């Protein structure tokens, strides 16, 4: 796994893990099972969220899986404010885990981005 510091943004690819320095947490991006964002070259009535499957492990405990969702702009950045019905952040063992961005952004069609191509930015902060 890569190492990341609390409060610093870091990027994970699908299947990649990050050990969080100074904690005994390891965050893994398991997969990106859904991307409903409106492609750049298409006109959509609405753009949906991208869905992420993550797992978090504390020390030697069994990893726990969670699903997060995020809206992003066409640059792949998630807005700061929470959206009703969308969980782009969660608390775990006294830390806040937040999705900051998801790339690449779809260009021509939904489903064009392969799971292996995603790069997801996270930040973990102490509560």
List keywords for this structure.
five-stranded mixed β-sheet; mainly beta; 127 residues; single chain
Can you walk me through this structure?
- With 127 residues, this protein is an all-beta fold.
- 0% of the residues lie in helices and 48% in strands.
- The chain is built from no helices and 9 strands.
- The chain has strands spanning 2-5, 10-13, 17-21, 25-35, 50-58, 64-70, 89-92, 95-103, 119-126.
- A 5-stranded mixed beta sheet has the order 1-3-4-5-6, with no helix packed on it. The chain has a 4-stranded antiparallel beta sheet with strand order 2-9-8-7, with no helix packed on it.
- A hairpin with a 2-residue loop joins strand 7 and strand 8.
Write a concise synopsis of the structure shown.
The chain is mostly beta strands and 127 residues long. It is built from no helices and nine strands. A five-stranded mixed beta sheet has the order 1-3-4-5-6, with no helix packed on it.
Radius of gyration: 14 Å
Shape: globular
Distance between the termini: 24 Å
Low-confidence stretches: none
Note the total helix count: 0
Question: What's the pLDDT, averaged over the residues?
Answer: 94
Secondary-structure content class: mainly beta
Helical coverage, percent range: under 10%
Describe the SSE topology.
Layout lengths: L1 E4 L4 E4 L3 E5 L3 E11 L14 E9 L5 E7 L18 E4 L2 E9 L15 E8 L1
Parallel strand pairs: 1-3
Antiparallel strand pairs: 2-9, 3-4, 4-5, 5-6, 7-8, 8-9
């Amino acid at each position: 796994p890569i190492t990341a510091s609390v409060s610093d943004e870091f990027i994970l690819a699908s299947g990649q893990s990050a050990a969080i320095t100074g904690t005994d947490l390891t965050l893994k991006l398991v997969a990106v099972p859904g991307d409903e964002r409106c492609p750049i070259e298409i006109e959509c009535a609405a753009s949906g969220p991208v869905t992420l499957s993550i797992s978090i492990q504390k020390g030697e405990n069994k990893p726990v899986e969670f699903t997060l969702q995020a809206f992003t702009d066409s640059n792949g950045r998630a807005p700061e404010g929470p959206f009703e019905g969308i969980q782009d952040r969660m608390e775990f063992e006294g830390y806040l885990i937040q999705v900051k961005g998801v790339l690449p952004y779809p260009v021509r069609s939904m489903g064009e981005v392969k799971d292996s191509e995603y790069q997801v930015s996270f930040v973990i902060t102490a509560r």
